[in-house]
């Protein structure tokens, strides 16, 4: 029997501090007397304790959009280092995008990713399967075989590329219905973004950078909403970045279309004014937009028009990132800073309370990704996938201190609110006070 007691925490930041007792991965008691029961059984030996010190207890965070770079670019991130960054960031489950090398377009790759994640044991790594073979947008991948594998793929995406052929997108949506899966679209009409490296607007014009119009995203979101409606399918919009996308989502949801969307922490925090020094760390797809878009995205997340926050954690090697702006690979780190950025952009301005944070960083992404053991209410009988947060602590971001193999954080030197005291996966502590705790679980692969 393994037993863990989390002392003095406030579930969802509400009410007086309580103790939470966990036995064999399940919450068995919550309340003032929960610790006393544990003390009674302490004679039997090993009760692990975490002191929450009056901090906040949330369901473990779930990231719908992570690039772990394994297989293929293990010099920039591996499932192991990415899992460590995730656990330190408060995550208990992540979805690993398919744009690896080889591409995760077959069960050989998706099953490997799942098993490797379980071997490491720091976070559940759910593989995302590619929609098309090689992400080439020409031929559907074997979605059903990936769904039937041990990786149980329920999210399919060509992320990094848009499934821009409308007939292929239609077919993918039709297949996904029978697999109870969702197609996650990187919404970018490629004809409108040829050569584009920055948001099309006054900043890009002044800097002489080729512009990426909002319409490139919005036209695909509108098209896919209509295709999903007709297929009776679920479509998910990756990294929504414009105020117009918010309006299309509002319309589509109003029509009863099964469309969901995520926003990244960086699109909630940063705008294109950061580009003035041509620092390639700020190059990302979709590009940082204008402050009016940022405001609309924050409000949409508060209102539930945007369902979830997803990191789009995108590690890149120095030789691919520290080059001329237009040649740099797009993408930035996100796993270890996501919660703090959501606190800074949503909680501190009063747009979300902690229950809202649980909704957008755990419950909604778990539901969209089809996970029934994550994002569950904190109650007796629930699986103990949890994170303890110190809302009053601050920390200063320094790339080399992060667990990631890459250092391309856009928040270098910035002091952010809130730290992760501990992360708990099925009752096992995976991160504590800024260090990971190895918990291999080879039995379940
Ligand atoms: C991502 C990557 O590096 O894989 N880059 C990015 O700028 N977001 C791909 C993606 O999410 O589109
Ligand atoms: Zn993308």
Biggest sheet, spatial arrangement of strands: 3-2-1-4-15-16-17-18
Count the DSSP helices: 13
**Classification by helices and strands:** alpha/beta
Q: What is the correct CATH architecture of the largest domain?
A: Alpha-Beta Barrel
Helix content: 25-40%
Which superfamily, in CATH terms, is the homologous superfamily of the largest domain? Metal-dependent hydrolases
Classify the fold: give the CATH topology of the largest domain.
TIM Barrel
User: Which cofactors or ions or other ligands sit in this model?
Assistant: N-carbamoyl-L-aspartate, zinc ion
- Report the strand count: 18
Beta fraction = 15-25%
Q: In angstroms, what separates the terminal alpha carbons?
A: 21 Å
Radius of gyration: 21 Å
Give average pLDDT, whole number: 96
What does this structure look like?
The chain is an alpha/beta fold. It has 2 domains: 3-57 and 381-390 and 417-435, Urease, subunit C, domain 1 (Roll); 59-369, TIM Barrel, CATH 3.20.20.140. It contains 13 helices and 18 strands. It has helices at residues 34-41, 79-88, 107-120, 143-148, 166-179, 202-207, 214-231, 243-254, 265-269, 291-303, 318-321, 338-347, 354-369; strands spanning 3-11, 18-23, 26-31, 47-59, 61-66, 91-96, 124-127, 155-156, 182-185, 198-199, 211-212, 235-237, 259-263, 308-309, 386-396, 415-425, 428-432, 435-436. The strands form 4 sheets. An 8-stranded mixed sheet has the order 3-2-1-4-15-16-17-18. A 5-stranded parallel sheet has the order 8-9-12-13-14. Strands 5-6-7 form a 3-stranded parallel sheet. Helix 5 packs across helix 7 and helix 7 packs parallel to helix 8 (243-254). The protein starts with a strand and ends in a 9-residue tail after the last strand. The mean pLDDT is 96.
């Amino acid at each position: 029997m393994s037993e863990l007691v989390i002392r003095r925490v406030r579930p969802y930041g509400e009410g007086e501090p309580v103790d939470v007792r966990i036995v064999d991965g399940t919450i068995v008691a919550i309340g003032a007397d929960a610790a006393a029961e544990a003390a009674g059984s302490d004679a039997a030996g090993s009760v692990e304790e975490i002191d929450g010190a009056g901090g906040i207890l949330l369901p473990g965070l779930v990231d719908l959009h992570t690039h772990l770079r394994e297989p293929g670019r293990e010099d920039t991130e591996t499932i192991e280092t990415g899992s460590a960054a995730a656990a330190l960031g408060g995550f208990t489950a992540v979805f690993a995008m398919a744009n690896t090398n080889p591409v995760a377009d077959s069960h050989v790759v998706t099953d490997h990713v799942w098993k490797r994640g379980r071997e490491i044991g720091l976070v559940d790594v759910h593989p995302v399967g590619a929609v098309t073979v090689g992400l080439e947008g020409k031929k559907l991948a074997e979605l059903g075989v990936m769904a039937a594998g041990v990786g149980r793929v329920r999210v399919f995406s060509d992320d990094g590329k848009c499934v821009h052929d409308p007939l292929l997108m239609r077919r993918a949506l039709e297949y996904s219905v029978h697999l109870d899966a969702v197609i996650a679209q990187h919404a970018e009409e490629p004809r409108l973004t040829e050569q584009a490296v920055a948001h099309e607007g006054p900043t890009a014009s002044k800097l002489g950078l080729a512009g990426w119009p909002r319409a490139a995203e919005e036209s695909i979101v509108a098209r896919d909403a209509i295709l999903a409606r007709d297929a009776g399918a679920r479509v998910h919009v990756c990294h929504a970045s414009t105020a117009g996308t918010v309006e299309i989502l509002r319309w589509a949801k109003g029509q009863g279309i099964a469309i969901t969307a995520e926003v990244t922490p960086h699109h909630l925090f940063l705008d294109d004014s950061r580009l003035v020094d041509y620092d390639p760390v700020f190059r990302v797809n979709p590009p940082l937009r204008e402050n009016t878009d940022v405001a609309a995205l924050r409000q949409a997340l508060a209102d539930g028009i945007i369902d979830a926050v997803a990191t789009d954690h995108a590690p890149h090697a120095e030789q691919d990132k520290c080059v001329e702006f237009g040649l740099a690979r797009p993408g930035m780190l996100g796993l270890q800073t996501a919660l703090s950025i959501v606190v800074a952009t949503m909680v501190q301005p009063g747009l979300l309370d902690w229950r809202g944070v649980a909704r957008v960083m755990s419950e909604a992404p778990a539901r969209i990704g089809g996970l029934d053991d994550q994002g569950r209410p904190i109650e007796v009988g629930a699986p103990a996938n949890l994170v303890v947060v110190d809302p009053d602590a601050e920390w200063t971001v320094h790339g080399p201190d992060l667990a990631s193999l890459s250092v391309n954080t856009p928040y270098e030197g910035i002091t952010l609110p809130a730290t992760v005291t501990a992360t708990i996966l099925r009752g096992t502590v995976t991160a504590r006070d800024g260090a990971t705790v190895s918990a291999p679980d080879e039995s379940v692969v």
